[in-house]
Structures are given as structure tokens and as C-alpha cells.
Write a structure and sequence with these properties.
homodimer, alpha/beta, 434 Repressor (Amino-terminal Domain), Rossmann fold, 3 domains, six-stranded parallel sheet, four-stranded parallel sheet, 12 helices, 12 strands, 41% helix, 15% strand, DNA-binding
DNA sequence: GAGTCACTGTACAACGTTGTGATCCGGAGG
DNA sequence: CCTCCGGATCACAACGTTGTACAGTGACTC
């Protein structure tokens, strides 16, 4: 373990700096010298001490990714994409879980743990618009998600309102008029729930459908269990409905479960559409229609933007907001009605 | 950003070492001095440079976790548990994805990227028993998974054979005799697939049921899609069967999908049991019976073992193998038959 | 033959921190 | 009055690396 440049230098009979030069591909080295050094490196099994290199260079080659919970499919898949994108740029990723808790998110932003990384990709869930200023941190930060807009940092996110509207209109186009909505956060204006609810309402309004409180299923958590609970609540009210827009796929799966328990057929009696396009959605029974929010693009863009901030700092300009394209993915739970190929009819952006 | 001990020391009018002492809770500091220093720290917003600290101390406070793919539910949930366990020990986690590819796994083991971490939790998938010796690396390493046994490192894993046998016996206890198996890796002896197949065969044998090649659905990948494909293959053979043991939950979900497409009712016509107890399993329709392999315990134990290796090195003794307890979780897809509470009947270990 | 230049290699300092030992001081003990 | 001790603080070196500045060594130009 303790093999250093010194050891290599001694064995090769050169100075420590020459070894360093060999490793860093400094051009002016005599082939004979290079060979001697390389042989010594191989013989001793030397590997550079990245900590020392980081200290010297000011760069660690690592970025941090903070998400609420990796056990949530959307964030697991996001993390998978981020790690892959980072690797392509030669970066490694340190993953933190906040549990979506505001205090932990605040603490994380202040934590010196990130002195070990070059920057942070932060998927906030507990923070709100009023917390925008705490994002003004002395290290590169790229915000993900939809809790804070127009903050002091770069922001990579999705078109929640437009996508939710498209999802709802997908149901309307299929002739559904009584569309329940699951996963609402009451009183929320921004945040995924607030924005997606807005898209839902816009779609109703655009088609002259009245908004009906009785079709709203609130649920703070967005797990399968809470989706099932919210759905059961709506079912218990006895109001008629023929479709469900769930604020994410996980909720949708819970809702489908509750519908089937209640003897409703999907999509015959009730069409269901979700949001996120998690892998799982295409293998459920029935397969889940959903919104593809452009996860890959978000991951790549977020890593790219962060890297630019790391390398160029404020020289890269003021804070940017980058929006992913989205698409309606029509599957069994809410098939497209007309024979126009769904891909053509539904892709937006 | 560039606030260092020097800056704090200058402002507080003390030496840099005194500031360091304050930060590290060195006992002999006059209260007045401590206060001066703390005020200077607050005023400048100083946070320690962890890279420098790491270089000096030889410890980074980070561990690496290498898994095949975070988009696979089991590994996402494992990572979630590992990160939580690490945090409880004051560690952060750097996550790598290998794609289950042998070459990438080999490269990862040699990579100096881990000089930035204190040790590695390695969930191998591409390596095999013959690669055991490459695990003999000059840094603390704890192996997860079931690709290599009796290697040169600590190993935290599950009781694959016994658990698979218990899963199969759960089906047999319900009166099923024609039990298909999905996700087999042909020719594999160890590895999850090999071991779980062995458990399956042991159960059949113990109950005098002949092993039938026609009921075997091979599949290298363990995704939903491959589960569905393997199941369709078995269905296409036209052989009768009344149950399925899937080598993991994801396969089981794919298999259930294929069964329902083919008009078979679960569990009436075909009972299904999986393996892993991913979160999702309890919310599918029908909910999935499965094996709970003790994921939390594995995560906690792996982190604890790695930490012990980091702190005590070889003084902690020779390589250990640690096995998690498991339990049969009976749900709708393969309910327990007798009225004995499943929890009592099924918990093993 | 002197001056210039490209090439090759070196010595030294620095990144920010902490361990080691030294120093200074006041008070207790002889 | 001197010694000794422990509290409080500091100077220095070191962790392993790389940037800067510089020193040789030839070869080439004029």
C-alpha cells in the first residue's frame, strides 16, 4: 500500500519529479528513462495516491449526488443514469440519501463532507421555494427536481405542467371525462405535486370539464402503499370516475392495485396513467401508461452542467434552467384511442 | 472557499495549530482562546478541507460500493441500506456500477480510484470462483453476493440453497407438484442461479418429485423482460405445470405477466414465488410471495465488517463468511396453505 | 568559437491538515 | 529561592503529489 513516488524514484534511480512526469505524460522524457520508470512502477505495483493529488490539484474527480431515497424507483434509476454519465466524464459519484427531510437537506448543504467532492447534484424534496437562498453555496451545485425555481444555481428539471397536461389530455382523448387524480399535496403550488396538479387542471379547463374535489386523492408520500390508500379513499366516496391520473408511476401502481381489489377493470372501467416511466411500468399487468420525463437527458445534462461549473465557475454565466423534453407513453392501462401511432401523436417537445 | 486554518488563525490571533486543536476538541485550551477561535471560524465560515485531512490522517471517511446496476431493484435497495448503515457509522458511500461485466469488475478492483476511499464493498456478478485470487487486493475489501466462496476476503451473503429449498417446499406444501423454475443459468454451479437451482432440486428430491428439464426456463439476465420470455418459452412447450419458482422477484414479475397474458390465473392455476423481497413485491397484483434474504442485515453487517477491517486490518483475523437469516414471505401469488401463521411456519434460521 | 535553443532532468515549495516535540508560564513543593 | 509539573500554546515537519524555476547537455546557427 505504502508505495509512493519516492519508492519508485529510488528504484528507477531518478528524481521523484521525473516519475511524476512519466505518470502525467510529460512529453520531454527520454525513452530510456521512461522505460526505467515504468518498469519500476510495475515492479512495485505503484498507484498514485489520489488524496494527495486532489490536495495538490484542488480537484477530486468525484461529485456528490443527493437524492431522497434510492429505494424509490425513480431515484434509483436517476442515480443509475447519473453514475453512468459521470463515469463517461471520468468522474465517480458519492451518493447521499436525505429521506426528503428538510432539515437533513439543509444540513447536507452546509456539510463539509463535500469538500471531498468537486460539486453536488442535489435532488431536493424537503426544501421549498422559500429556501432558495440556502442554495447559494460556495461550491458548484446543480439543482434537480421541482421544489425551487429561479434559485441562484443551475437547475435541470422536467416540464411538469405541460407533461401532466398531456397525460390528462391523453385520457380525455380516449373519451374519459371523470378523471381522478392521486398524490395531491394540498395547498402546494410548486413542487412536483403542485405543478402536475396545475397541468391536470389546465387540461380539464381546456376541454370544458369541471374540476371536482371529490375526485382528488391527497397523499403526501408517493409510495405504492399511499397510492393504494388514496385510491381506496376515492372509491369509498362512491363518486363515479372512469380514469386516474397518478402523480407518479409508483402511486399509479398502488392505485391499480386498489382498483383491481375493488373489482374495477383497468382500462375498461378505469384508465390509469402515471408519470416517470420507471422500468417497471412496462411489465405490470396491465402495463402502465405514463409520461417519459426524459430521465437520461436529465442525468446527462445535469452532469455536463455541473462539470462546466466546476471547470469554468461563474465564467459559465448566470444560473440556467434546463428543461427536458417529455413524451406520453401509451400502454395497456390507458391505450391511445386513434390508430395514429402513439409515438407520433404523443411526442411533445 | 479558500478559507483555511491560516485565515482563521490570523483573525483569531493564535497559531494555526491552536485552531486545529479547537476543531479537534483537544482538551487543554483556555475557554477565552476557544471562544476567540470559534468566533473567527463562524465569521469566516471556515470548514475543514477534508482532502488535506485525509492525506494527513490516511483515512477518508468514505467507502466504495460496487454493484452491477442500480436500476435493478434488489441492488438499489441494497445500496439504500448500505448508505444508511454507512451514514450511521459516519461514512459516506461512493457508488460504482459494473454492469455485471467481468472485465469491468476486474478493472475496478485494480483501479486507483479507490485510493479515495478506505475500502470497498463489492457485489460481484461477472467474476467467478476461478477469479478468487484477484480479490487479494491491498485494501480492505468485503465481498457480497454468491459468485465466489472461500476467497481471501470477508464475505457477507445469504443462504441461497436453503432459502431456495424453502421457497420450493412452500409450493410443495401447498400441494403443487409440477414446479417450473425460471432464471436458470445452464451449467452454473455456484452463483445465485446455480445455488438456488440446487435448493430447488433438493426440495424436489426430498419430496420424491422428479426433476423435469421441460420445466426449466433458462435466462441469463434477471430482468422482468427475461422472466416473461423464459415463462413464455415454458408455456410454449405445452407441458403442464402448477407453480413457478423464479430465481428473483423481478423474474417472477415478468413471469406473472406472461402467465396472465396466457390466461393462467395466479395463484389458482399457477402459484408463483420469487426471491429477494423487493419493496415492489407486496404491491403487485397479485402480491408476490418471496424469500426475504435479510437485506438490511447484510448491509449492516457488510458495513460493520468493512469498518472493522479498515480499523484493525488483518488483526481482525482471517477471512470470515457471514450468512444472513432468511424467511419465506407468503403472499397472494403463493399463499400458505395451512392456518398456521406463516411467520411462524416459515421463519428459518 | 560563442551564443542560442530544445530537450531532459532536478530542487524546492506548496496544497491544508495534524502529530511531535519544544517553549513559556504560573503555582505547588521542597 | 529553586525545582518541578502540568496547562496552554506554538514551530516544525510530514502526509504524497505537482507547478515553478532552473541547471545541465548537446546540437545548431552565425
Amino acid at each position: 500500500m505504502a508505495v509512493t513516488l519516492h519508492d519508485v524514484a529510488r528504484l528507477a534511480g531518478v528524481s521523484i519529479k521525473t516519475v511524476s512526469n512519466v505518470i502525467n505524460d510529460y512529453p520531454h522524457i527520454r525513452p530510456a528513462t521512461r522505460e526505467k520508470v515504468e518498469q519500476a512502477i510495475a515492479e512495485l505495483g505503484y498507484t498514485p495516491n489520489l488524496t494527495a493529488r486532489s490536495l495538490r490539484s484542488g480537484r477530486t474527480g468525484a461529485i456528490a449526488l443527493a437524492v431522497p431515497d434510492l429505494a424509490l424507483a425513480y431515484f434509483a434509476e436517476l442515480a443509475a443514469s447519473v453514475i453512468a454519465a459521470a463515469e463517461a466524464s471520468g468522474l465517480v459519484v458519492l451518493v447521499e440519501q436525505t429521506g426528503g427531510d428538510r432539515d437533513r437537506e439543509l444540513e447536507l448543504l452546509r456539510s463539509p463532507r463535500f469538500k471531498m467532492t468537486d460539486g453536488l447534484l442535489f435532488s431536493a424534496l424537503g426544501l421549498g421555494q422559500d429556501d432558495a437562498e440556502v442554495l447559494d453555496v460556495p461550491y458548484p451545485l446543480v439543482l434537480l427536481g421541482e421544489r425551487i425555481f429561479d434559485g441562484p444555481t443551475d437547475h435541470v428539471t422536467m416540464q411538469n405542467v405541460a407533461a401532466a397536461r398531456a397525460a390528462t389530455e391523453h385520457l380525455i382523448a380516449a373519451g374519459r371525462r371523470r378523471i381522478a387524480v392521486v398524490g395531491v399535496h394540498e395547498g402546494e403550488v410548486i413542487g412536483s405535486a403542485g405543478l402536475r396538479l396545475r397541468g391536470y387542471r389546465e387540461a380539464l379547463e381546456a376541454h370544458g370539464i369541471a374540476f371536482d374535489e371529490a375526485l382528488v386523492g391527497p397523499s403526501m408520500a408517493w409510495h405504492r402503499e399511499s397510492g393504494a390508500r388514496a385510491m381506496r379513499e376515492i372509491l369509498a366516496r362512491g363518486v363515479p370516475f372512469d380514469a386516474v391520473f397518478a402523480m407518479n408511476d409508483t402511486l399509479a401502481l398502488g392505485a391499480m392495485r386498489a382498483l383491481l381489489e375493488a373489482g374495477r377493470r383497468v382500462p375498461d372501467d378505469v384508465a390509469v396513467i402515471g408519470f416517470d416511466n420507471i422500468d417497471e411500468a412496462q411489465y405490470t399487468v396491465p402495463s402502465l401508461s405514463t409520461i417519459d420525463p426524459g430521465r437520461e437527458w436529465i442525468a446527462n445534462t445535469a452532469v455536463g452542467t455541473l462539470l462546466e461549473r466546476i471547470e469554468r465557475g461563474d465564467a459559465a454565466g448566470g444560473p440556467r434552467t434546463l428543461l427536458a423534453d417529455f413524451a406520453v407513453v401509451a400502454r395497456e392501462s390507458a391505450p391511445a384511442v386513434d390508430p395514429v401511432p402513439a409515438a407520433i401523436a404523443a411526442v411533445v417537445g
